[in-house]
């Protein structure tokens, strides 16, 4: 049975080129396998339909002879589905920035997944590498927040040219190779026929500008490796191994680029008395047999210093008692968890004759 490509894209047979492009964009967004609710089979069908309807010559042949006019199928011509999916995910190598039917894959899929060229062939700045560092904080600092100083060596903007790569006082001129666009296009043969591949201009490294006089300090790179000292605020209630992102404090890639991010991974030191579960704190307290039977008030350590804990009469060993609101503050919220104290009743291994006699009398009294 012949395939109805118009139905696949949801357009009428007399649809304009712009309507077909718009329909393809909508369907590609909807069915991309990497998107929640995506459908790989539908995605294949949509792209096969657009290969034909998005090309004026192929569309004319399809209208005349049907889907059988091209026996190569949807992804022939030396490429396969894996090649296409790599391209749609921004991993396409030579397929990166490919353009077919007037739509750049970077334009369509970059909107969903954060890569590619963007509209009008404009690409973002070069981005530096992200960095991860680890810090250790005390149990209390993790609970109530603190500020830590971090020292690290990384690629930073040159302090002479401030990262521009140009000698102070000199100017830039428009790159003649790309006309200031920062990109060059070349035509290549792909599974869709002749297509345009977009890449950074090798002459200006994608900046669109040429430095007339390079900075002597960095050689025109705009970057120097140096030590950096940063302060990071650790928020109250942070969890163990949580990360804090410091935007644009990662590696600087060089002239015309944007620094990556710095991720600070927080490790919480174990506490000798407290254990944390989510926002609650747990500890143990030992009491005597008489305290368990008769009840008492005891001092126990908490995050807020020593507090009184009421031991009700008849408390059983390993019973948990709660101190409401003395746990860890909620991260980026209001309120606190609770502090739970597990009471352990100490049973003496040896007792005097007098104590033994008193216990026997107590036992007799309880059994009456």
Q: What does this molecule look like?
A:
The chain has 368 residues and is of the alpha+beta class. Among the domains are: 1-71, Helix Hairpins; 125-163 and 222-270, Urease metallochaperone UreE, N-terminal domain (HSP40/DNAj peptide-binding domain), CATH 2.60.260; 274-345, Urease metallochaperone UreE, N-terminal domain (HSP40/DNAj peptide-binding domain), CATH 2.60.260. The protein is 24% helix and 29% strand. It is built from nine helices and 17 strands. The chain has helices spanning 5-9, 17-31, 40-53, 56-65, 81-88, 105-113, 139-144, 289-294, 353-367, and strands spanning 99-100, 103-104, 131-137, 146-157, 172-174, 183-190, 193-200, 209-211, 223-234, 243-246, 262-268, 275-277, 280-288, 296-302, 305-311, 319-323, 339-346. The strands form seven sheets. It has a four-stranded mixed beta sheet with strand order 12-13-17-16. A hairpin with a 2-residue loop joins β14 and β15 (305-311). α2 (17-31) packs antiparallel against α3. The longest helix is centred in the N-terminal third of the chain and has 15 residues, at 17-31. It is elongated, with a radius of gyration of 35 Å.
């Amino acid at each position: 049975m012949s395939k109805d490509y118009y139905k696949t894209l949801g357009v009428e047979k007399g649809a304009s080129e712009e309507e077909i492009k718009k329909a393809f964009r909508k369907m590609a967004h909807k069915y991309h396998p990497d998107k929640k609710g995506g459908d790989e089979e539908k995605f294949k069908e949509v792209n096969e339909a657009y290969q034909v309807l998005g090309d004026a010559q192929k569309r004319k042949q399809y209208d005349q002879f049907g889907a059988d006019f091209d026996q190569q199928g949807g992804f022939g011509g030396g490429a396969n589905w894996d090649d296409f999916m790599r391209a749609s995910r921004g991993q396409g190598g030579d397929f990166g920035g490919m353009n077919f039917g007037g739509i750049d894959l970077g334009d369509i899929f970059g909107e969903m997944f954060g890569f590619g060229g963007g509209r009008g062939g404009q690409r973002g700045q070069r981005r530096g590498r992200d960095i991860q560092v680890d810090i250790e904080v005390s149990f209390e600092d993790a609970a109530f927040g603190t500020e830590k100083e971090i020292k690290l060596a990384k690629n930073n903007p040159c302090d002479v040219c401030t990262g521009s790569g140009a000698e102070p006082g000199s100017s830039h001129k428009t790159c003649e190779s790309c006309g200031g666009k920062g990109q060059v296009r070349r035509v290549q043969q792909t599974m869709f026929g002749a297509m345009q591949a977009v890449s950074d201009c090798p002459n200006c490294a994608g900046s669109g500008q040429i430095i007339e006089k390079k900075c002597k300090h960095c050689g025109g790179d705009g970057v120097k490796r140096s030590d950096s000292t940063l302060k990071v605020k650790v928020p109250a209630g942070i969890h163990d191994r949580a990360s804090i992102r410091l935007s644009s404090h990662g590696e600087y890639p060089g002239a015309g680029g944007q620094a990556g991010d710095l991720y600070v991974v927080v490790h919480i030191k174990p506490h000798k008395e407290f254990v944390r579960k989510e926002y609650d704190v747990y500890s143990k307290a030992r009491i005597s047999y008489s305290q368990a039977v008769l009840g008492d008030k005891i001092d126990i350590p908490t995050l807020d210093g020593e507090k009184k804990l009421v031991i009700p009469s008849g408390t059983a060993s390993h019973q948990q008692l709660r101190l409401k609101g003395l746990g860890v503050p909620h991260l980026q919220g209001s309120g606190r968890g609770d502090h739970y104290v597990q009471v352990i009743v100490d049973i003496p291994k040896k007792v005097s004759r007098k104590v033994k006699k008193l216990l026997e009398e107590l036992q007799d009294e309880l059994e009456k």
